[in-house]
Amino acid sequence: SYPGSGHGGSSLSRDSQTSLTPDTSSNEPQGAAFTCETCGEALSSITNLQIHQRLHTGRKIHSCTFCGKLFLAKFKLREHERVHTGEKPYTCDTCGSTFTHASNLRKHQQLEALKVRT
Q1: CA 27, CA 45: separation in Å to the nearest integer?
Q2: Which of 74, 79, 88, 111 could bridge 98 with an S-S bond, Cβ 3.0-4.6 Å?
Q3: Domain extents for the chain?
Q4: 17 secondary structure, DSSP code
Q5: Angle at 66 between CA 61 and CA 55, to 5 degrees
């Protein structure tokens, strides 16, 4: 929800600078335009800010259709549901091994690269 929008009170603020060139004088990530008023973290979109704010409230709104487990972010729910479906969308181009998470594929590829060097 947005202040003054009639959608309830929330800790949202939009930086006033709308320049398309990044402000390299700040510690904010490039493209960050939304600031959490609770902790001051800068985020690049209103959606990212809303997900981030759930860390402060503990509000989990995405529910697994298989087991009912709740998640802060929809992408985390999709990752979790792979436990139930067996989906492994990430494939190693070298050996064909499949993984449920991109991070596991990256770790696998790093290990494979080390094996090739030795």
Answers
A1: 17
A2: 88
A3: 12-57, 62-117
A4: -
A5: 25
